[in-house]
Amino acid sequence: MENNMFCFQCQETAKGFGCTLKGVCGKNATTARTMDLLLFVVRGISVVANQLRQHSLPVEKDVDNFIVDALFCTITNANFDNESIMKRIDKGWEIRDALKHQASAQNIPLPEADELNWKGSHNDYDAKAATVGILREKNEDLRSLKELIIYGLKGMAAYLEHAMRLGHNDESIHRFMQNTIAQITTKSLSADELTVLALKTGEIGVRTMALLDKANTSSYGNPEITRVNIGTGTRPGILISGHDLHDLEELLEQTKDSGVDVYTHGEMLPAHYYPAFKKYTHFAGNYGNAWWKQREEFTSFNGPILFTTNCIVPPLPNATYKERMFTTNSTGYPGCKHITADEKGHKDYTEIIETAKQCAAPTEIEHGEIIGGFAHNQVLQLADKVVEAVKNGAIRKFIVMAGCDGRMRSRDYYTTFAEMLPKDTVILTAGCAKYRYNKLGLGDINGIPRVLDAGQCNDSYSLAVIALKLKEVFGLHDINELPIVYNIAWYEQKAVIVLLALLSLGIKEIHLGPTLPAFLSPDVTKVLVDNFGISGIGTVESDMKKFGLMNE
C-alpha cells in the first residue's frame, strides 16, 4: 500500500521511522506532498542556474531569493498553508523556464533530468508529488546522506535569509547551495562523495552563521549580559515568535507611543540581549517558554501573535487565539493574515497593532527575571575570569547543552541532567533547549552564571568561537582536548546545519538526543560513530558517569 506521505526530517517523526499519514508536527499529507513538489521545482532551478554559472553567466538575485525562501518554508513547523506553497511552485516554473530560455539562447547544454522538463496543471500536482519525494532514492544509505545534506541546506537557507533581510549577503553561499542541489539531482554520487559533501555543507554552514552573526551585531550591537523580565504589565501586548530580528525592529518602531507593549516568545528571547532594542521602553519582556507550549501560552497572552519564522504549532479547532495569529516571511497557516513586505522591504503592522488595542493585557503566568547575553563577544570579555576559574579548579567542565526543545516527555532528561550537574560545571547554551533549565536558578561560580545563554540556535556559532578561543588561550593542539562535553538536543533542520558545522570544525564526541535522527541509516550512523564519536543519550546517571561528571 502506497504511503500518503513520507517525512522523517524532524526528531519527533512517528515511531522514530517516518510520518506516513500525517505529520506529528501537524502537517497533513497534502501539504507534505506539495512541499515535495516545491523541492522538485527547487532542484530543477538549481540545475539550470548552476549550469549557467559554470559557463560564467550571471544568475539574477530573484533566483537566489526564491530558493532560499522555498527551502525555508519546507522546514518543520514553518508553513502549513497549501495555497501559499502552490503559489511558490507556480512561480518556480516561471523562474526555471526563464533560466532554460537563457541557457538555450547561449547554446548551453543542460543535463537530462525530470526536474527540468515536467510541468503539469494543478490537477496533476498531487500525483506528480507522490513520485518525487524522499523515497524516490531507493538506496537507503544514499537516501540518508542526500537528506542529511538537504536538511543542512534548509537550515543554511533559514540563517541566510535572516542575514539577507539585514542587508548582508554572500553570493558564494548561494552558489554552493545550488551547486550541491544540482549534484544531488543529476549525478550518481557515491556514499563517500556524499559524505565529503555533507562535511562541506557544514563548512559553508559555519560561514553562513558567521555572516548572520555579523549582520545581527553590526545592526544591533553585540549582545550583552541582560536580565529579562518574564512577568507582564498592565497594557495590551503583541507577542512576537520565531527568529527574525529585522521584523522585531520594525514592530518596535511602529508600536512606539501606541499604548501597546511587545513581548518575545520562544527563540525571540535573545533579542533582549542586543543593545539597540533596549531603547524601546515598551519592549516589555519574554512571555512563556519554548515553541511547543504555545497553545496554552498564546491563549493566556490574550493579544495578537506574529510568527516571523518556523515554530508554528497548529491551533486546536476551539482555539481562541487563531484569529489573532499573523504570519510573515516563509511562514503560513490557513486562515491567518499574512503580512508581506513592499518593494523596499518594509512591512505595515497596523492591523496587528489595532488588534492588540482591542485585547486585554496578558495574563501573568510567571514572574521574575532570567539572565542571558553570553554570545562570543561578551564571553571573551570575561575570558581572563573564565580561564582563571578553570586553572584554579573552580570550573571543572563546560557542558554544551545547545539546540532545540520539543514535546516528547523524554526531554525531561535535560532538566534533570542540568539539576544533577556538579556545582563546578557551567552550561553553554543556545537555542530553545535552554527553556529546560534556564529558570532553575543554578547559581554562579565566582560571579560567572552557571547557565551562559549565547542566544538563538544560530548563535551556536558563538559557542564554537568561544571553544576555539579557549583552545588558543590554553595552547592546545586539538579543540577536543578542552574540558567541554557536548550534550545537544535537536529537533529540526537548523539543528542539522549546526551539527554539520560542528563536525566540520573537527569537534568530536557529540551526544545527540533525545533520539538519533530517523533519516540516518544504520550504515551512515556507523560512519558518524566511527569517525566522529557521535552517540545518543542514555539515562542521566549513566551519562553523568560517561562524561566524567559524577562527584567522587
UniProtKB/TrEMBL annotation:
Gene3D superfamilies: 1.20.1270.20, 3.40.50.2030. Signal peptide: none annotated. Its cofactor is [4Fe-4S] cluster; hybrid [4Fe-2O-2S] cluster. Its EC number is 1.7.99.1. Its main location: cytoplasm. It catalyses: A + NH4(+) + H2O = hydroxylamine + AH2 + H(+). Keywords: 4Fe-4S, Cytoplasm, Iron, Iron-sulfur, Metal-binding, Oxidoreductase. One of its GO terms (molecular function) is metal ion binding. The modification Cysteine persulfide is found at C404. Pfam families: Prismane. GO terms for biological process: response to hydrogen peroxide. [4Fe-4S] cluster binds at C7, C10, C19, C25. GO terms for cellular component: cytoplasm. It is found in: Cytoplasm. Catalyzes the reduction of hydroxylamine to form NH(3) and H(2)O. This is Hydroxylamine reductase. The lineage of its organism: Bacteria, Pseudomonadati, Bacteroidota, Bacteroidia, Bacteroidales.
